[in-house]
Amino acid sequence: MSATTPVREELERRPKGASRWLVPAVLTLGALAFLLPFYLMVIGSLQAEPDTSLSGLVPSGGLTTANYAAIDGSVDLWRTLLNSGVITGGAILGTLVFGVLAGYALAVLQFRGRGTLFAMVLLVQVIPFQLLTIPLYVLTVRTYGLADSYLGMVLPFLVNTTAVFVFRQFFLQLPPDLFSAARIDGASELRVLWSVALPLVRPALLTVVLLTFIGPWNEFLWPFLVTKEADMQPLAVALANYTANVAATTSNPYGAVLAGSVVLAAPAVGLFLLFQRHFTATNLSAGVKG
């Protein structure tokens, strides 16, 4: 076979004519439509006067940070951001620990009832959190007395069945010979998990971190139920209270609420931009030679 054959085949597969620019144009329009709400949120948070018309897409007046000062004057942004960070960090830590252990056990270990247990994990995913809110509230607040505490806010998010499912699927892709070789060398199961399995499922770790971060960081219902003290409330709850009780007293409540929304969304966007290049598929079979 000629060496130029693959090159010729690749050229023949490339789009020609209108298709060459149509696909990038459609993707660009889709990206702009997706980014438009974020753009409006940022611009609205910097406007001195609210402008919800189409002309507000390109502000003609000067931009100001007064809205951020207004929201910080009514809501302690740094304190609420710290609360959100502690809650989210605890949820991520619990999700990774329990998710990795459960996913590894369901994928690699052989024990009776493994299939039934995995079916129960899938069943839990179809139960909405709102259905469990009242029992969890009674158990957390009345039984354990964890109201107005970080542990009370983190407790329902320590175990994430979606993370268990993701880790299980990634562990199933690993060649069994890797685990067999490690066990022959005398490694324990925890050693196999830490030294062999985890380095090969790094994309799963990053994916779970990002997905777990978004949920607790934006969570409103559960922290709202278990916190009454303003010093313990996360940013999402503080913004809701500000909108309901204080926003009408400010000169530009619309801009102040958007400023708080920008502060709430910025860490999630920054985390995604920071780790997006790591969300790549890896050749999991590369660890086996022969």
- Name the average pLDDT: 80
Q: Can you tell me the residue ranges where pLDDT is under 50 for at least 5 consecutive residues? A: 280-290
β-strand number:
0
Number of helical regions: 14
- What structural category arises from helix and sheet content? mainly alpha
Spell the H/E element sequence: HHHHHHHHHHHHHH
Task: Give the CA-CA distance, first to last residue.
Answer: 28 Å
CATH topology of the largest domain: MetI-like fold
Task: Name the quaternary structure.
Answer: single chain
Structural write-up:
The chain is an all-alpha fold and 290 residues long. The chain has two domains: 6-64, no CATH class; 69-289, MetI-like fold. The chain has 14 helices and no strands. α9 (176-184) runs antiparallel to α10. The longest helix has 31 residues, at 77-107. The relative contact order is 0.14.
Show the helix and strand layout.
Elements (H helix, E strand, L loop, with lengths): L4 H9 L4 H29 L19 H9 L2 H31 L6 H12 L7 H11 L6 H5 L6 H12 L3 H9 L4 H12 L1 H17 L2 H6 L8 H11 L7 H23 L15
Helix pairs in contact: 2-14, 3-14, 4-8, 4-11, 5-8, 8-11, 9-10, 11-14, 13-14
